[in-house]
């Protein structure tokens, strides 16, 4: 693998922007009903260790009702669903290359359009530290990963086995090519890789550069704060999305907040909002494998409860729109202005309705403003980390589908089906 050129962000002071509103608790917030859900996934041997994580929406070029939702399930692989949540395809994660190596573990997925005339789903395989790439045609996926695709962050299989691997992912396309932004598990790194055509119709990639976000922060009282993690780990990034019209990357550092930066990873990132737990000291207990928090000094944000997770953007025709973030700690979603300083606007939940349970502990989400089937004002898809009905001793996850029109009506937001869409 060609060595990455590295950009290390050493300045730990930053700009904080956005409004200072009353803390948003999960109780009493607007609740929006889901309309469909995918089948249950079970993270055990009987369920093939399937644990839902992240969705992406692929828009059909001529029949939007035939669009599909693509979801990751870690060791369970990749699933493709229709707009009613029914499973259409399944791709198992790759087996371990050797008896002492890690198996494939699909973490995040995003879709990009028009790469050499094909649409692609790009997946971060955190077990193998590679990207897996699937061509999409008519809603059907085909694996086109170049067998010679390099590790994203590591040089050897042993380094991969140490679990500092490809984690979060967002696709980005500009005039110079098609890229993926990839975060590194247990590190603060975000890497940029460029997709490249490979032999026989395959698709590979080439690392371009990485940027390291801060691991420690200077608080207003002059003290240095480092988020509490397991020994040897740093505050990692997972949820990411690129504003495709502005070439801006938003990255959720789970225990810190949401960063805004240039998608090419040049320039200086800005911390646009913080989690409520920002600045709270903690000590790691190896017996419980948990962090015990100390006294809150009051430097945290008002809208996100750690972890800050899935990010997605709703585009409007006027260049405005909404950035949405999963506040995993209180099972809510924060809505920010897409433009300007990303001021916070609203907070909401996905509740339960007509036999479909609500969304809890959400990792990933995706929104699209284009009418699709029964979702005639757009679609919002969210991972549900606690699907019900619960099954004793089985971790149960899936994905919920909610109409954007219902969200907009409940939160007094706009519906704009003429805004930018990925096929523009």
Model description:
Pfam families: Phytase (PF02333). It comes from Nonomuraea roseola. Residues 22-411 form the BPP domain. This protein starts with a strand and ends in a 13-residue tail after the last helix. The protein has helices at residues 157-161, 404-411, and strands spanning 5-8, 31-32, 36-37, 41-42, 55-58, 68-72, 78-81, 87-91, 106-115, 118-125, 130-137, 140-143, 166-174, 177-184, 189-197, 203-212, 217-218, 224-225, 237-243, 248-253, 257-262, 270-274, 282-285, 290-293, 308-315, 321-327, 332-337, 344-350, 365-368, 379-384, 396-403. It is built from two helices and 31 strands. Strands 1-16-15-14-13 form a five-stranded mixed beta sheet, with no helix packed on it. It is 3% helix and 42% strand. β21 (257-262) and β22 (270-274) form a beta hairpin. The protein is mainly beta.
% residues in beta strands: 35-45%
Beta strand count: 31
Taking the alpha carbons of the first and last residues, their distance comes to 34 Å
Structural class: mainly beta
Largest sheet: 5 strands, mixed
State mean pLDDT (0 to 100 scale): 93
Rg is 20 Å
Adjacency order of strands in the biggest sheet: 1-16-15-14-13
Ranges where pLDDT stays below 50 over 5 or more residues in a row are 1-25
Global geometry: globular
SS field, number of helical segments: 2
Helix content: under 10%
């Amino acid at each position: 693998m060609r060595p990455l050129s590295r950009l290390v962000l050493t300045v730990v002071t930053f700009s904080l922007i956005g409004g200072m509103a009353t803390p948003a608790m999960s109780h009493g917030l607007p609740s929006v009903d889901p309309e469909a859900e995918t089948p249950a996934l079970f993270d055990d041997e009987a369920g093939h260790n399937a644990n839902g994580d992240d969705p992406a929406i692929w828009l059909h070029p001529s029949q939007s009702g035939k669009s599909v939702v693509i979801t990751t399930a870690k060791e369970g692989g990749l699933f493709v669903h229709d707009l009613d949540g029914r499973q259409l395809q399944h791709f198992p994660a790759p087996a371990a290359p050797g008896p002492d190596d890690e198996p494939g573990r699909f973490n995040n997925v995003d879709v990009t359009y028009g790469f050499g005339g094909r649409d692609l789903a790009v997946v971060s395989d955190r077990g193998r530290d590679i990207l897996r790439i699937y061509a999409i045609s008519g809603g059907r996926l085909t694996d086109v990963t170049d067998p010679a695709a390099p590790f994203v962050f590591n040089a050897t299989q042993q380094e991969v086995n140490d679990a500092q691997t490809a984690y979060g992912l967002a696709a980005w396309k500009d005039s110079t090519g098609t890229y993926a932004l990839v975060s590194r598990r247990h590190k603060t790194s975000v890497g940029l890789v460029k997709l490249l055509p490979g032999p026989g119709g395959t698709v590979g990639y080439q690392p371009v550069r990485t940027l390291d976000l801060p691991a420690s922060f200077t608080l207003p009282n002059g003290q240095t704060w480092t988020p509490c993690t397991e020994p040897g780990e740093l505050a990692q990034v997972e949820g990411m999305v690129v504003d495709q019209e502005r070439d801006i990357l938003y990255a959720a550092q789970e225990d810190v907040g949401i960063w805004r930066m240039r998608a090419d990873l040049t320039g200086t990132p800005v911390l646009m909002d913080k989690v409520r737990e920002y600045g709270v000291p903690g000590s790691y207990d190896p017996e419980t494998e948990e962090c015990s928090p100390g006294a809150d000094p009051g430097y945290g944000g008002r809208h996100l409860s750690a972890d800050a997770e899935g990010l997605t953007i709703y585009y409007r025709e006027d260049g405005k729109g909404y950035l949405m973030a999963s506040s995993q700690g209180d099972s809510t979603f924060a809505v920010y202005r897409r433009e300007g300083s990303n001021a916070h606007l609203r907070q909401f939940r996905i509740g339960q309705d007509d036999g479909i349970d609500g969304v809890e502990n959400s990792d990933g989400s995706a929104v699209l403003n284009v009418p699709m089937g029964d979702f005639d004002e757009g679609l919002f898809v969210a991972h549900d980390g606690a699907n019900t009905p619960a099954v004793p001793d089985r971790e149960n996850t899936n994905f919920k589908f909610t109409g954007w029109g219902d969200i907009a009506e409940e939160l007094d937001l706009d519906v704009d089906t003429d805004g930018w869409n990925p096929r523009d």
